[in-house]
Amino acid sequence: MSPTAAPVASLVIVDDHPLFRGAMRQALEGGLDAGMQGIGPVEILEAGNFKQLQVILAENPETDLVLLDLSMPGVSGFSGLLSLRAEHALLPVVIVSASDDPATIQRALELGASGFVPKSAGIETIREAITSVLRGDVWKPDDVELSAESDPEIADLINRLATLTPQQTRVLSMISQGLLNKQIAYELTVSEATVKAHVSAVLQKLGVDSRTQAVIAVNKLGSDAVSPHNSL
Fold first, then answer.
1. How far apart are CA 215 and CA 232, in angstroms?
2. Mean of the pLDDT values across residues 147-175?
3. H-helix or E-strand containing 201?
4. What letter does residue 98 receive in the DSSP assignment?
5. Which of 141, 126, 140 is nearest to 26 (CA)?
6. How far apart are CA 46 and CA 39, in angstroms?
7. Of 58, 69, 125, 139, which sits most exposed with the smallest number of CB within 10 A?
């Protein structure tokens, strides 16, 4: 009896619907594209919210890829993606979302996603996307044509977000999650004075006057991304 092949990649499926996570797991447990050399069985972990994802990544630093829904408890729009890019800059993130209009796809890629897969995609398409991203490519649906951001305000906001340091991006994500300075300080193991300094820098770089305005600005990015989940 031949030994079971060792997993060649470790993935985390992040979605608050257990049925969707189960369907995605079933689609991937047999391995990725069998016709692609070097890609075989994968290890699959699941998270039902963003906090669970953070715990999983802390306990599994060798994770190869995250499949992230845009709409779930603990994140608003693209705040989860922004947080992941700040905390795990080298970890590929593939957005799997029911909101698959060109504007949402383009914004996800501009904010650091390595791929975007519609929830309506078939199993083979999902496997193809993951295989492509694991090999270092960026993947998007073939039938989606991307162009320059048509909303000048959004384009300016994306450029401003790019100027934030990783720690400032973490702080912005936590503000978007509704955390107070004291809670942010605890999460980041820094003083409240340090958090206040980061918040001031974030507000200045985003060109807003308050935490509320910062959250509103970030939510504008994901206004099209918060929608009901589709089935796989």
1. 31
2. 86
3. helix 192-206
4. S
5. 126
6. 20
7. 58
